[in-house]
Amino acid sequence: MSGTSYTYSQQLMGTTVSLKLFVENLTAVSAVFNAIEQLEDRLTVNRYHSEVMSINHAAGKQPVAVSKLVFDLISQAKAASLLPDSKFNLAIGPLVKLWKIGFNGHSIPEKDEIGRRLTLTNPHHIKLNRTNQTVYLAKAGMEIDLGAIAKGYIADIIKLLLAQYNIFQAIINCGGNVLTIGYSPITADKQWHIGLKRPFAEANNLLGIIHVEDKSVVTSGIYERYFISNDQLYHHILDPHTGYPLNNELHSVTIISNNSLTGDIYSTIFYGLGIRQGLSELKKKQNIGVIFVTRDKKIIIQSNQHFTFELTADDYQLISYS
Ligand code: ADP
Ligand code: MG
After folding, report:
1. Residue 276 to residue 19: CA distance in whole angstroms
2. Apex 237 CA angle, 236 and 240, nearest 5
């Protein structure tokens, strides 16, 4: 075990981004944070201007040429939105903007308004032209929202950037999205130890520890951003079919995968599928592992040999499939 680690943090992408390295390399560190800032500038829909916003502003009017980076992410997001039974939908923007969950001014919208916005969220109406690298939203009022996956995509790019600085051991944490690179130089088992959060508790209150090497660990939970009205909890993962927050037996889904974009896409998809359908789907997806945390205090795991899990909460029951 070699000892020293160097940790750097910045507020970016609406969260605290932290980077831990095991060599001191300030050039690499500033390159990383600059890159994240620039990528956020292109992908965000929380400001008036960005590459993605230029597509949204032109909805119903004309196709917009974008960079390869933005085009590729939108193509992958569209493909994920069109998978059978997928509740991931990159065209969810009009509903996200209506609910404002996690932002100032959230409220329960009128049913009619939800119905009206649902007509603006069909992913088939996002027209991609690979030759011209353009994106066209066919109906006025449509909006792409990459909020569920931008962090994962950015984390994967940062891994490539670190490699250019010959850094092959690191951990990037973008609030709920953790990407581990290489093996850990500071633990006896050479694995990274990532905490699984207890829903609705303090950040350092854990249900257990995930042990991984060179993997992404992404969690989608309903306790990250939500509001309560009339004893009813409204969280920020919306059901693209009803327009209301997805309602099922789950508090969170964690995906362990090689790349973080996959983790980000599938954490939303598996949250939407729920446990039964999720586990059967996982048999076909040997390249990812999953941890479901349920409302009734069960932790259901299918590791597919991508991680091990150490339970630390004695009020939770662990059910493990391998
Ligand atoms: P976090 O931003 O807390 O990491 P997620 O990765 O789970 O959370 O993504 C939630 C965000 O994804 C929402 O804030 C919204 O911007 C967007 N979103 C909400 N519902 C959907 C959906 N069904 N499909 C795709 N994106 C969604
Ligand atoms: Mg996500």
Report:
1. 36
2. 125
pLDDT tens digits for range 204-238: 999 999 999 999 999 999 998 999 998 999 999 99
Verify whether ligand 1 is closer than 6 Å to residue 144 (CB atom).
no
CA of 219 to the centre of ligand 2 (A): 7
- Cα(13)–Cα(102) distance, rounded to whole angstroms? 13
Encode pLDDT of 154-199 as tens digits.
999 999 999 999 999 999 999 889 999 999 999 999 999 999 999 9
Whose tokens are 């998809």? That residue is 269
**Which pTM does this prediction carry?**
0.96
68, 82, 237, 269 from 277: Cα distances, Å:
34, 17, 18, 11
Structure tokens given for 175: 């609030």
Q: Separation of 124 CA from ligand 2 center, angstroms?
A: 22
Residue 235 Cα, ligand 1 centroid: separation in angstroms? Answer: 10
d(CA 245, CA 15): 22
